[in-house]
Design brief:
Layout lengths: L6 H5 L3 E3 L2 E3 L10 E2 L14 H9 L6 E4 L2 E3 L8 H11 L23 H9 L6 E2 L5 E2 L8 H11 L11
Helix pairs in contact: 3-4
């Protein structure tokens, strides 16, 4: 069973209506989400405009503030591991969590951007980072997230649902 509703990654389809995101009729019982953030670099006709607008309206991504009340999403840039931690934490509803006073990762100081979100991932077993000699771990927060790591994050975020991989 998906504890945190990861099904959105598989089946979310939304239709953009001026100022609102309306869930399609197949799941019309879901509440309407107001689109309170728009990104200057994501025109309505762009390939993933609906999905990006959903991220913003759901509070999962805030993008970059470029001044003057303008925000950018930067859709063609890679996403770093620290930002992905923030996305998952926000999707989980920004749960109450007190981050540890000592980082579980040697490369994530307590004052680092997204420290709370990264340590939440670690506390939930969603991310384990890299084991180094001497029993220490690294998270590599500014590295782009690789597809295999993203698969691991999402599988763990979904509470490791029962699944048997097909033979290769």
């Amino acid at each position: 069973m998906f504890r945190r509703g990861v099904a959105w990654l598989v089946a979310v389809v939304v239709v953009v209506v001026p100022g609102l995101l309306v869930v399609p009729s197949a799941v019309a019982a879901d509440p309407v989400v107001e689109n309170v953030v728009s990104f200057s670099d994501v025109p309505a006709e762009s390939q993933f405009a609906t999905e990006i607008s959903w991220l913003a309206a759901s509070g999962i991504s805030t993008g970059w503030d470029v001044g003057g009340g303008v925000r950018q999403y930067r859709p063609l840039e890679s996403i770093a591991r620290n930002a992905m931690a923030a996305f998952l934490y926000r999707h989980a509803g920004s749960p109450a969590f007190t981050p540890p006073t000592v980082s579980p990762f040697t490369d994530v100081p307590v004052e680092a951007a997204f420290y709370k979100e990264i340590t939440w991932l670690a506390s939930e077993g969603i991310s384990t980072g890299w084991a180094l000699d001497g029993g220490v771990r690294e998270y590599r927060p500014l590295s782009p997230i690789a597809r295999d790591a993203m698969a691991a994050f999402l599988y763990r975020y979904a509470d490791k649902p029962a699944f048997t991989a097909p033979p290769v």
